[in-house]
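Supplementary notes for students who missed Thursday's class. We covered one full example, reproduced here. Read the sequence, then the structure, then the short commentary at the end.
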Amino acid sequence: MRPIALFTTLLLLAFASLLFSLASGSVAVSWQELLAVFTHSGTGNDLAGQVVMELRWPRTMAAFTTGALLALAGGLMQVLLRNPLADPYVLGVSGGAATGALLAMLAGLGSIWLHSAAFSGALLSMLLVFGLSHGSGSWTTSRLLLTGIVIAAGWGAVIGLLLAISPEQGLRGMLFWLMGDLSNTPLPTSSFPVLIIGLVAAIGIGRSLNILAHGEQTAGALGINVKALRSFIYLLASLLTATAVTLAGSIGFVGLIVPHMLRLLGMRDNRLLLPAAVLLGGSLLVVADTLARTVLAPRQLPVGILTALVGVPLFLVLLHHSRSLHGEER
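Structure (token representation):
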């Protein structure tokens, strides 16, 4: 598919997913009412306007931002580790965020403190992995990956301990957060700028990413400062992941699948793939979250469960039909 046609399709998909989310729910909102809400042609005090602007619009934008952050981080991680199975959570950032959030919940702190604790835990995990992977030797992708896996396993043990000692009345909220939960999510006024800055930075190093994907020796021979580039990619991907986890908890498979779907459509240039991943990742999570809150309405499902149920068979299909996943063709 030509890039112009693909981006046009992705923009239309993003717009359609937003409309689908805003119109769907226990309170039916027609297209005419949606138009009236956003053009201020209605009274602004009716039920539809309150439902859309106070409940659905913040949650929809949070879902789109989270999906876009995860997809962008996944694309960067797969280039950094040169591993088609790399995703935003592979280096333990989500485990640190989850530990911080659970500690805040155990302490009975409010949502602001919860988000602050989750982001602090993610940054702590990032610093641990980054520092320990350097050690006294050279910095390598395999060393980074192994360190991240060990740190993630350690966070998993801490999370299990916190769940085991938690009071029963708070256990449901903790489990929902761990499985990905967008309910009561505020408008992502601080997360969306992180997404924009991250996307601009990723596009800016897109050419270097294309060269690095062919191997570190090739990149070094072509004048790329491989060590500095790897550090920048890791820090950027970790920041994007920490922001996404802080916003919505742990949501899997978005960052893993979206880059592969675009590569199967023939997109290899990271200068195009990464912005396309932002649009597709955001759209997919908006649709998934809409289904999570409407399939069993009025009961809501954690959106992470839905992405996993859809992501597992979808990834197996992609794996079966792809003759050369990212990295295997080299």
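Commentary. The radius of gyration is 20 Å. Residues 324-330 have pLDDT under 50 and may be disordered. If anything here is unclear, bring it to office hours.
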